[in-house]
Amino acid sequence: MNVISLKTVCTIVGARPQFIKAAPVSRALDRLFHEVLIHTGQHYDYGMSDVFFQEMEMRPPDFHLGAGGGSHGEQTGKMLIEIEKILDVVKPDFVLVYGDTNSTLAGALAAAKMQIPLAHVEAGLRSYNRAMPEEINRVLTDHMSNLLFCPTDAAIENLAKEGITRGVHRVGDVMYDALLHNLAVARKRSTILESLGLQSGAYALATIHRAANTDDPARIAAILDALGSLSTRVIFPVHPRTRKIIREAGLAVSKNVAMVEPVGHFDVLILQENANCILTDSGGMQKEAYLLGVRCITLREETEWVETVQAGWNALTGVDVNAIRSTFETWHPSGERPALYGNGEAAGEICQILGRELL
Length: 359
Known about the structure:
- The protein is an alpha/beta fold and 359 residues long.
- It folds into 2 domains: 8-173 and 342-358, Glycogen Phosphorylase B (Rossmann fold, 3-Layer(aba) Sandwich); 181-330, Glycogen Phosphorylase B (Rossmann fold, 3-Layer(aba) Sandwich).
- Helix content is 47%, strand content 15%.
- Strands 3-2-1-4-5-6-7 form a 7-stranded parallel sheet, sandwiched between helices. A 6-stranded parallel sheet has the order 10-9-8-11-12-13, with helices on both faces.
- Strand 12, helix 14 (306-310) and strand 13 form a beta-alpha-beta unit.
């Protein structure tokens, strides 16, 4: 009896968007590879981590590092130390990382230093704002990667400007894969509109998590003022760290702004689909808003997803109160939404490319 030895892919995740992206890829990997899943613990509370694994029907991680908290350097350093130990034992044929978090950079550094081939999902994104920790993480990861899985043509062009042309593949966006799969489930399971007493189109959805906004008292105060000035109810699921900052800064929250606990991904999708507007600093939510046909106001001065702005469905306002209020009240996009992010089969394409490299 012949025994087939499967090649091993080590997937490293640590934050909510990465769990969502990894789910369709893990399902596809399972057909050809042995996947070892490392959860760094960057998002470490139930509402930001465990519930997502359960909802996505992902198996529990093989390793959980518990490396949440601390400064960027401290967090990345703890992850790097522990990931190196695991890779030394597992000896994977490829390491797979996602996006632009500290978990991404730690996994990339560990793989590169141990000379293990590295694949980066969501490669080539650029905000061209080096003050953002995410920009540093994504640039360094791209320059260490052997395979770069790009969601858009713009991402490929960004890499070419930096001299990266080998191993670059346009596969589409795995978030689209996840959206197609999860939205159908969410419509059957979620009761979030009923539990919050919401009607479709009668509220806006806000999410704020980037350090550039949450760590600057003036910026978070401006955002709260802007949300409070809108002529609609605003549902604001609040990251635990953001809630703590708002409380410690003594910032006022208007009555039309409902600060709720973080909710599961299926509930988030239903909240997005039925909102009259999404106000966010999240890259993933900008894309989901576009795919769902919901206008998005991005509370940043720049975005990695420039094509959503060019298509007329995403507006950049920064945290200027008047700009946010004016955009919300007067801007209502219409017209076509070009298929910017592939056909919803990015995960399968990624696995085919890995297969050609390994099998």
